TrEMBL record:
<protein>
    <recommendedName>
        <fullName>Sld7 C-terminal domain-containing protein</fullName>
    </recommendedName>
</protein>
<feature type="region of interest" description="Disordered">
    <location>
        <begin position="271"/>
        <end position="323"/>
    </location>
</feature>
Amino acid sequence: MSNAIELRRSSQDQFKVLTVRQKVDEGVYAIKIHCFFNAINDEDTDSSEERMNIVSSPTLLASPATSSCSSTTQHRLLYRGALSLPDSHMLLDGLTFFATTSQSPEKALLENPLALALESMRGRPSLRFLGLVVINDLYMDYSGNISVDIHPRALLSQVYFENVFCLKPQSERGVKVALGDTDGPETTQIVIYARRDGHAINLCVGRISTAPPPPSVPRLPRPDDPIPRVPPLHLGKHPRVRELKRAHTSVELGSKGSKRQKILDADTTFKVPTIPSQGSGVTQAKAKGKTKKKGDEEHEDVFGTLNAQTKGKRKQTEKSSLQIDPEIEQGNKLLVKQMTVQYLTLGLPAPPPGSPLIDACGACPPVSKTHPEYKDILGWIYRGVSYALRTKIKSTPLDPQVVDKLVRAHVQMYASAVPPITGPAMVEREDV
């Protein structure tokens, strides 16, 4: 390894800049910039010469050189190129980005997103220079351990970085660089910053990343907040829940068709209710009398007890009292339908003089089956007569005279106002 040491005074005569040229990789020469924060006065020339001699001694410079090029650490070249200044054709060339790792380069590269981003820029002549930023205003990722070296012949780059980082004892600024042509969120942005190591300043690289969200602070309770409900004490502690959980893990695979047995407490007993039979009212009364004698009088209902037959709804008692005969019901409905169809198709003649139906019914013209209102009239007459005879139509045979009277009344009521249709209308109805 060949080292060349140069000493130059800064423009403000406040700091001394030491440029150490080191051969990092084969064919790649780089520099490291070291700033010494010792004021040099024109009057005290002897002390300044002593400082220069001490700094330029090989013993003091051996520690950074050996630490960066020791046998345990390895260097990997990531990108070599320049920075393109905005609105200018000038380039800050001679820049080399490399990673210093103590592990294998392949493993360190996979765990370092900044190194991967820089290696993806290989082949590009330059990176975009975005300007100077304040490091305290950004959230930086310093875990890459990536440094920057400057070629000894790149004088413009040396002077620029010296003016940025070596004019003040502590630099708060950094050079912002974009790894790409766009400014979208997919473009990685890095910052070249200075890090002090004893009396030297090394140029390092950090990646700009999004800041983590602030820790969530629980909101203080407000007066209008609802009172939180306390869970029941027996929730999750009942023996049924524990037994069901254990039973779920002990189910065999072969018992798919069998139902799971319902698990209850050991204290529970099955009480089979007695079904009252017909005609057993006396026996039930005796049984109730016995149970009342055995039981305590304190548990008796002050409102009394009701029979099982009287506890049902009124509709159920009415249905049970009616004895429905399907054959009688079908015959009664057929009689109503036949009389309705007969009076609609043949018409309703006027009753003879002295007939009891003369007050309610009169003559009615016939309504043919092709009439557009035939089905509606038939349905209303049939439902009206059936509803009028609803108490007898399901249990007893109907009297034909009563049915005839009701059908004639409904036909006179619905079919008397039906307008007759002409021949062409009937033909069109049949075609439809």
